[in-house]
Amino acid sequence: MRNGRSMRRPVRVALAAVLSLTALASCSSIAPGGQYAEASHDIGTPVTDQDLAAWNIDVAPDGRGLPAGSGDVATGAHLFAAKCAACHGAQGQGGLGDPLIGGQGTLASAKPKRTVGSYWPYATTLFDYIRRAMPYNAPESLSADEVYAVSAFLLNQNGIVPANTRLDAASLPRVVMPNHDGFVVDPRPGRL
C-alpha cells in the first residue's frame, strides 16, 4: 500500500456494485410478472366529483372555497399553544418556524419583518395556508373550526380583529389586512 488511495478504490467499486444490484432488484419487483404486475392503476378512469372534492380545498381571496364552520379567538389561543407554539414560539414570535406576529410598519425598512400582520394581503390566504400545511408535522389535520379559530387568534394578536371575534365563511373575507394594497392586482379578467 503506497498510500491510502489504493485501499479506498476497491471499497468504492464494491459499494457501487452493491448499490447497482439493489437498484436492479427493486426494479425487477415492478417489472411485468412481478408482484405489482396485476395491480390496476385505472389510467383513463374519470375522476369522480367526490374524488376531486378531497383535493379541491383552495380558498380564493374573496372567500370562495371557505368551508362551513367557525372559530373564535379564545379557542384559537388554546389551539395555538397546543399545536403551533412549538415551532412559532409561545407568542408567535418565531422559533423553528417563521414569526407570525408583529412587523407592522417594517416593510419599507432595511430589515422588513414579513408576518401575517405586516405582509399578507388577505385573511383568507391565512386560512388556506393553515388548512393545507399546518401543523408542520400533521398537515391537513385541523378541522375547519380549528383553522377558523387559529386564524382568529393570529389576526387578533396582530391587532387586526378584536378579542371577541368569531370567524366563519362570511366574516373572514371581510377582514381587511394592513397590507391589502401592497400587492399588484392581477389584471386578467376574473382574477382578484
Structure description:
The chain has 6 helices and 2 strands, in the order H-H-E-H-H-H-H-E. It has helices spanning 5-28, 49-55, 73-83, 85-88, 123-133, 144-157; strands at residues 70-72, 166-168. It has a two-stranded antiparallel sheet. Helix 3 (73-83) packs across helix 6 and helix 5 (123-133) packs across helix 6 (144-157). The longest helix is centred in the N-terminal third of the chain and has 24 residues, at 5-28. The protein is globular, with a radius of gyration of 25 Å. The mean pLDDT is 84.
Strand line-up in the sheet with most strands: 1-2
Q: Report helical residue fraction.
A: 25-40%
Low-confidence sequence ranges: none
Q: What structural class do helix, strand and pairing data support?
A: mainly alpha
Tell me the number of structural domains.
Answer: 2
> Termini distance?
71 Å
Rg is 25 Å
Give the integer mean of the pLDDT values: 84
Structural shape: globular
SS elements, strand count: 2
By CATH, the topology of the largest domain is Cytochrome Bc1 Complex, Chain D, domain 2
Q: Count the helices. How many? A: 6
Helix/strand order? HHEHHHHE
| CATH H-level homologous superfamily name of the largest domain | Cytochrome c-like domain
What share of residues are in beta strands? Answer: under 5%
